[in-house]
């Protein structure tokens, strides 16, 4: 008897122990780890992942049987199965959530499955296909014997499976042809047909190289194979006609092919070191620290090309890819159709198609955001993380993983190097490089020795005494100057911790969200006050609800108002705005960037989105309107974030031949993060910040864990969190520092009360056991309404 070990998905009854289920005889030998199944669990049926197969079980009762197959082939590769185990341990989460995180969104939600087949199989199995090339796969409708047959056909590649979102438009099915010949048969056929049949010999040549996959007719006809030839080929038994789903193309526009550039010495030595590690299958982690504009991208591209040359694949991660269409364009122009792309602005269908291309081994280069680290890519030769310090690499929901750690795990598994690239590395990574855990590669100069931009700081306290204008005199003068010279300008409005709100001028009343402890944000476009935590909306009051005064005023500035002001100040300037509102529609982000790149606008203004990765040679002025709005956060990383942001955005200026200039407006001109951003001295910043972290016992000197608990009752939350703190104090050694429980900075969100505990430690032998215990008991607490989450190495303590 074959037994499957299944990790089941049962809310509030989760466990990391697999359950054993008997595999029905018809599925014998066909069921594999990495497939999803349906199994009986108590009175209901639940889904689960097969994580292992065995022929004996310690369970002495009668085993229940698997009741259905969700997948007909594995959706989780053996590597990713192993990774899920490690990930669960690393993030103190349940395996089921790790496995689900690895699948593309479309496959997690509701989907239908289609079985596609060729004419021969259709004719041979009328009881399955009823004369159709395409049928729905509904596990309830087929008996085990039929499913057994389907599995066998699937394995023999006679059936293709396609996932389809139920609410999704019909997939495009197109005619395709699958080779039936062996290489020798092809050679024989080639030798016998007359040279005059150009189209036929062309087809045979193509079949020689492409035997595994059905070839689309449209593609074949582009290669000069006529439809008459294809009819003949079917009659002669060279190919089978079938239908395949046309792959949705996530790339909006075709790109021109580009070729490797000649490297400067620094780039060359970086590429050499990485290439050597690829060849030696060395699991080295490189920290590529290169100032903005030093040409890191070209280093990535040439190292990736080398990985492909050695027969391997390459994985490259970027922060929120939609924000950097430029870099995607550069990668595509180098690697063409071998590139698969995975990011959040793609539709579920597009993402599924790309995932499928990777799973089928068609894509050799994967570029994507955080979740792309779980791409089912095999035989990886190089992993790159661009802007490794970026906070989007940390997942903020269960499992709360740090992409860097997952990248290092996969690199170790694949015996390949990892390259972490940044102009402003995270302190964690830089500290590791200093200790020799990572190898440091420096690109200290801009490409072509272009100068770094000149940065000046404007004290807004002085400025505000003179005028209420959001642009200081200095910045406004420089904008005028650039407009006159026909050069381009970027203006950044730092949105973090910054919003517009309303306040009564007579009594100081500020409207609060009824469900959360936070003031409401004013949205001019919808004429509402919104809560950005729970989504609550209400009309903007005309009379103060507290003192009935009519003097309700609006404070703070949004990018929309900034746009209005800028247009008023510079009536001749062509202005583009990029923020969440102007980029909601698909492709709009790219459109704005292309327009600015084509110099169809003079000023690009926007939020954090415009700070990263953009490379426009005509930009010679960058203005940061409110540099310090993040500094007042009670967060040990605020300085680091501010320094990184200012360095990033300054780096957009003066990237080509013209000298760039940057104006930073701030109320805290003396803050070290701002002062050091002025001199763009990462080294000094690193030293200063490390001292502060040392004194405060913060990362990277200490490891940290954050435990958060929430429930609808503050009393219950506080009580349970005290219990947990008590448990921690009892079982951890006295080297561990346990802070709290304390209410979170925003205590109430959506009528739930949040408390947290912070653990800081350098070495804590019992930590894993203790946290695993908390994770296990969290399920009992969840049934009582208390949600517990554990965040290993949280980004903040808020
Ligand atoms: P970074 O990512 O380090 O900020 P980029 O990779 O965007 O820098 O490079 C900065 C600029 O220098 C880009 O315009 C890029 O095209 C150019 N560049 C980089 N390397 C080379 C090279 N080897 N030859 C020619 N141009 C290069
Ligand atoms: Zn009032
Ligand atoms: Zn709210």
Automatic annotation (TrEMBL):
Hydrolase in keyword set: yes
Task: Quote the record's binding site residues for Zn(2+) 1.
Answer: 504, 507, 544, 547
Q: Name one GO cellular component term.
A: primosome complex
Residues reported to bind Zn(2+) 2 = 513, 516, 531, 534
Give the reactions, separated by semicolons, that this protein catalyses.
Couples ATP hydrolysis with the unwinding of duplex DNA by translocating in the 3'-5' direction; ATP + H2O = ADP + phosphate + H(+)
Per the entry, what this protein does is: Initiates the restart of stalled replication forks, which reloads the replicative helicase on sites other than the origin of replication. Recognizes and binds to abandoned replication forks and remodels them to uncover a helicase loading site. Promotes assembly of the primosome at these replication forks.
Which family does the record assign? Belongs to the helicase family. PriA subfamily.
Query: Self-association or partners: how does it assemble?
Result: Component of the replication restart primosome.
Q: What is this protein called?
A: Replication restart protein PriA
Q: Which organism is it from?
A: Lentilactobacillus farraginis DSM 18382 = JCM 14108
Q: Where is the organism placed in the taxonomic lineage, from the top?
A: Bacteria, Bacillati, Bacillota, Bacilli, Lactobacillales
Gene that encodes the chain: priA
